[in-house]
Amino acid sequence: MLIVGHNEVRALLQGREQDILELVAEAYRLHDEGRSALPHSVFLRFPDQPTDRIIGLPAYLGGAEPVAGMKWIASFPGNLARGIERASAALVLNSTVDGRPEAFIEASLISAKRTAASAALAAGLLTADPEPDGIAMIGLGPINLEVLRFTAARLPSVRTATVYDLDAGRAKDFARRAEAALQGLTVTVADSAAAALRTHSLVALATTAGAPHMDLTACRPDATVLHVSLRDLTVQAVLEAQNVVDDTDHVCRERTSLHLAELETGGREFVDAELGTLLRSGSPFRRLPGRRVVFSPFGLGVLDLALARWVRDRAGAEQLGVRVADFLPGAVG
């Protein structure tokens, strides 16, 4: 068993945005081709802690190097007040030959970076302006910092960001960290969500909201909205937009904004396309004049596996991590 910790994962993924974008894009293509197995994720909730949850994402991804495993990711928003990250995660990879676990990897960065890469790929395919110069961001935690990093890698024209968070101190800290991380980027803190949304045609939402609280009336008519947090938008906002998702069956559940739209309308006709199909076909997405486009990624376990496999292989090649020879029964020491 190979165990790879957080600091080693961070070192391996540092500066690898283009590699990660391609890994995530290829995982989407394989999934769209039907070369994956992706059961619905399992949500563990606590009766006395309604905001907390732990999610299990089992998956199999085929192709030239098949990989199987499961990510186990916890979201405890109260951690922020404790001075620690909201999310924590671990991922196990299993052999596709005998099923035995082969690697155990700290996965919070893998999860954040695959989410951000997914959003950046969508931004590159869906924006009305082929070279947007900036992005508006609502919800300023680690996810949107990664979304900013990967969007700038996918769309180098993005050199400005206008940001807003309910916590003004967090917003100022985000601006400082973003400008330090991305050379030449200018970040402005807005005094309201509406003020931020008006500034750019590209928008990223990554809040911890558990129920819809936002429409898109403050956005530009040609806006592309990366709805990473999935539960911000009202049903009406969803129905008024063109909607692109990563997987329709996965995103229309667990009371996401799209799930609520399905419950209200009785169907899924409001979903216009899936990202994997767009990536595989190479055909441009057809935007309708005067309609905003919303990308809502549920977050697919195959993306985590694609990055985890890469981390495992790199860790092995660079002799990183800890090997536990007698972890499994019958193992030879």
UniProtKB/TrEMBL annotation:
Biological process, per Gene Ontology: siderophore biosynthetic process
MF terms (GO), sorted A to Z: oxidoreductase activity, acting on the CH-NH2 group of donors, NAD or NADP as acceptor
InterPro entries named in the record: NAD(P)-bd_dom_sf, ODC_Mu_crystall, ODC_N, SbnB
Taxonomic path: Bacteria, Bacillati, Actinomycetota, Actinomycetes, Kitasatosporales
GO cellular component, one term: cytoplasm
Pfam families (alphabetical): OCD_Mu_crystall
Record PANTHER family: KETIMINE REDUCTASE MU-CRYSTALLIN
UniProt protein name: 2,3-diaminopropionate biosynthesis protein SbnB
Top-level taxonomic group: Bacteria
